[in-house]
Amino acid sequence: MSETSADIGLIGLAVMGENLVLNMESHGYTVAVFNRTTARVDDFVADRAKGKKIVGAHTVAELVSVLKRPRKVMMMVKAGDAVDQVIAEVAPHLQPGDILIDGGNTHYPDTTRRTQEMKAKGILYIGTGVSGGEEGALRGPSIMPGGNPEAWPHVKPIFQAIAAKVEDGVPCCDWVGRDGAGHFVKMVHNGIEYGDMQLIAESYHLLRELIGLNTDELKEVFDRWNKGPLDSYLIEITRDIFAYRDPDTGKPMLDFILDRAMQKGTGKWTVESALDHNIPLTLITEAVFARCLAAQKDERVAASKVLKTPERKLSFDRDALINDVEMALFASKVCSYSQGFALMSAQSNEADWSINLGAVALMWRGGCIIRSRFLGKIKDAFERNPKLANLLIDSYFAGEMERCAAGWRRAVAAGVLHGVPMPAMSAALSYFDGYRSERLPANLVQAQRDYFGAHTYERIDKPRGQFFHTNWTGHGGTTASTAYNV
Q1: Cβ contacts of 20 within 8 Å, gap of 6 or more
Q2: Are 377 and 388 a contacting pair, CB within 8 Å?
Q3: Residue 484, SS3?
Q4: pLDDT per position as a tens digit, 180-228
Q5: What is the pLDDT of residues 374-387, one digit of tens each?
Q6: Helix (H, G, I), strand (E, B), or coil: what is residue 201?
Q7: The pLDDT of residue 2 is above 50
Q8: What is the set of active-site residues?
């Protein structure tokens, strides 16, 4: 090989890094690799990379030295300080016009900061979301790049070659926007993923607790659901999980798994961003808190001995409840995506990122964890109206909500009456009812705020933007607080 033979370099040979390298190589690219533990480089080159166009490097300098100009270096390391440490090691070896890529789950403000810091050095920085897990990284993930737009033409051929493709051959990868836009979109993707997983878990819980479906029966239900509007990767793998047996006992593996879910932080970041933008991200927020509650296993066990569950008179029509839960799952999913896309729109407008929401739906149609048939309908909605304020008012989704509404309400009511927790599904229903309400009881909330804090209010018989204060007690005076929203 020549001294500058590699098309791209990758730092960080964990599962995602290794598989991305093999994916790139399988599409005709020569890839140089480096890992802080150099033995991992040698093991990879001698095993999975043996005989392939993959160059092992034992130092960052060696890695950079074999790259074609403009050099492209992709980091697949843990988010946070580790990224800054790698940047500090790599940047001195790069020249103006070279490209540095962060493919981890980085918090988007860090990517915005790093993009500007690297721009000052003449280095083009990209922060890209990569979704699809181990299999996606190897066979075709969803890739969501953002950062310095000057870098995009140089990495576009590689990224779009290795990305998943949808039916018409379009890659699930396109430029998202400036600065931290790519990592922001990936963050929201992960938040929606939290919501999808929680909704599926609640559906499973309802069917198990209220009509006693066993895992074989649940497998059949989810297999049928996966042939309809709920067709998705998460429904598919849930079906397969129900079918899996513990090799030692032959019993369902799921029944041996402790009901304590963990999380890495992207869901929390999504909720924090929603609060910053005043977007009611209620379902995803409840999904995050559901994991927090699940983590309190010991407390829940103790509480279950004190706090009694309502008597469960299990007289449900089996097929009717299964259909109702299907409606509830689909309708709740629509609400979750409505909230997530509203959050992306708010951030895009504030940061002037010009995120194409229809293109995001297309990028998520294949490769990623939340890939589904449903996302094609979202893409269609934004093609019909690129300025769509909320998916719920799109003609297709409005019709679907009407189709599902009665079953959704029956499923949630059944859970509430029988003490089966449904934090995400019930939050979705409350959001839907609130969003479609011309009038909410917030007038009373604002009257209370004015009563105890002179926070003022607007009147329905006066122009919007005019604020008033009432001396409710007769001795409160006329001085009012400034009206503002956080």
Answers
A1: 10, 74, 76, 103, 130, 137, 138, 141, 162
A2: no
A3: coil
A4: 999 999 999 999 999 999 999 999 999 999 999 999 999 999 999 999 9
A5: 999 999 999 999 99
A6: helix
A7: no
A8: 186, 193
